[in-house]
């Protein structure tokens, strides 16, 4: 199975980039899961958690408030104003 | 010590003092370029992502309208120019170049019969226009280098407000950005770009136009666009601000390097002159002594 090429950026820095098996983002009208081979999509994000799940099952989680995500031939770009680590990650 | 020598010594001292100042300024600028450049690079992925997304939406969906995309926005004939200059001098031609670009743009816009509103970042631009009695609409000065993102946000908010305003006394039709592009430590260019109305696909640097896949929009193209466009405007402004700051430091470093070299040339020159003056004085003294001795021996007196 192919993997997703994920770039997660805020206006000031790159938060996370690399390969992932699955990405879950809080789209404006509900949570949206992204898997490889998904159709090209541009979505507005609401408030919630962005979850990036690695091939070996490890999860990176960030809280975001608004932003956008674009998916195009397995390249996922998440752009947000600011991303905070979840409390539980510390 | 003769008066001439003293004068040269004084000049050497002052050139040495100035050289120290220039050298310090140069080193400060040199360390700041690296930081400023890193900040530019840090904002680039986001700016790229957003430009690409905008291009994609604009290319495929023509069934929506956004006030920033309308090509004909002429309502009041008023145009806004955001000019980015520095707060401090000693940066060579950095601020004057940006101001000149803005002036040229302003003149050509006025020739088209438009009214120009200036929005200025930096004290140099502000004082330029204040001195000529052409006050700007709004200025942001002094600004903090660490808070450029915040400043960019504030500027974007102000400009978006006037662009979208329905009030004919406030509304502006177009928005131009005059900043300095940081190409490398050695090359920076003052540059004008039009932000509103937006060109659909901006092929920067004359590169190939990117092609975009047919996107699915969530929830729909119009709200995606409504979300993206203000972000795009903000990210462009922030990016231009950061590039300008990096350019300012690069420009200052170069100017200060030249000034340091110049001060050294002055020191060398005055050292030579001081040496010559000293030598001349010594020679004169010897001549006087020899002359005196000769006169004495010529007079035929044997005792002193």
Keywords, please?
heterodimer, A: mainly beta, ATP Synthase, domain 1, B: 304 residues, alpha/beta, Helix Hairpins, Pyruvate Kinase, Chain: A, domain 1, 2 domains, 5 helices, 59% helix
Give a quick account of the main beta sheet of chain B: strands, pairing sense, barrel closure.
Answer: 5 strands, mixed
The shape of chain A is globular
**CATH architecture name of the largest domain in chain B:** 3-Layer(aba) Sandwich
Q: What proportion strand of chain B?
A: 5-15%
Q: Can you count the beta strands of chain A?
A: 8
* Number of helices, counting only DSSP H or I runs of 4 residues or more of chain B: 5
Q: In terms of quaternary structure, what is this?
A: heterodimer
Number of domains of chain A: 1
Number of domains of chain B: 2
Q: Which chains share the greatest interface?
A: A-B, 24 and 28 residues
